């Protein structure tokens, strides 16, 4: 049996949906969407509805849902809280269906909708998700969310960390330059991950808005065993 | 006076023309287009007409031009030779206007047409072009051609080598994650550039067609002082 193919995509603008119909797509947006989603499930959320438009989030709020919603780093007036992982405490989310407002994320979920499966990756669930991927015997695409369609370093580094684990299993091969680059960048970054993230553009953007308190947490490996997966457009806990 | 901004673009699909109207754009496509263009000028070509369509190249041939034209690595039947830098010898090109067929390249030139200036970069002219850029006091975009809109490593590494030289001048700053990644990848690759390029997808593609003999040459720094520049859609020698 041949090895499964591992690819990495650095931006929604580079995603080739037709090539990945049989693949498992891992969405990586570590500062902060996919870290927040992993945290919510770790703290007992039952499901998360990702919504793209502010008005859609507002409608969910009117119908009684707990809503996390920001635009440009500011919590929207009708929302219960913002998009930081620190907001998704057990007290707030356990047993609940949440609404998470994310323009970038919903676009990516739509782009990848023809894939075999879409799962949510971050450092917080890296070992559990890597083990699960290895057990699936499918091609894998590490899909970095980027920022406004641009390449970003923090998601690339996390993709490199996933790629290292998958390739070490001996079950995957890659001829994808993006994967090779992610591996090399991870090898540079992992020597001092916190220091490395200091130079990243997204950190600068978050810091300017006082939203950078969660970055150390977002770099923590294996905070949870949860593997969020998209089913019918909704995020659910794959393990339970 | 503030520092000038340095950015890197990894693919035509990621180029943001509106942001770069006042910038000098350096097109980097080292295996093999921009290396071949630098070689042609080093060997005395007077100008190069980049054409996108095969039929356009054929028309130029009928009108008596010397035409370099390949598709998928095969020399087209009407062409004088293919796209390898080794074809652009002094005997063939000195004093002549050439036609160079490149689908990818003409698309990029069109994309960047609103920029202040478009120049051609490769390892072959890296020192001369870096010095010239530093003398211009303009924002710079390192525009990697990629391959079929995908990220590629060889152009990224070359962009990292340019970025290192520009930043060392102290005249530029960057908050662009792509530039930071290119710098880190260059720092990994430069220890053994030939060995590093061994793993690159484009090398595999060229090797499968027997077109990889020029790769060592394409990695040679400072073969020429020439700085090809686009003027009215035509490549000319900026220095002369």
How would you describe this structure to a colleague?
The structure is a homodimer of 240-residue chains. Helices cover 37% and strands 20% of the residues of chain A. With 240 residues, chain A is an alpha/beta fold. In chain A, the strands form 3 sheets. A 5-stranded parallel sheet of chain A has the order 8-2-9-1-10. The longest helix of chain A has 16 residues, at 153-168. The radius of gyration of chain A is 17 Å and the shape is globular. The two termini of chain A are 30 Å apart. The relative contact order of chain A is 0.23. Chain A binds chain B through residues 10-11, 13-14, 149-153, 156, 175-178, 180-181, 184-185, 187-188, 199-202, 204, and chain B through 10-11, 13-14, 149-153, 156, 175-178, 180-181, 184-185, 187-188, 199-202, 204.
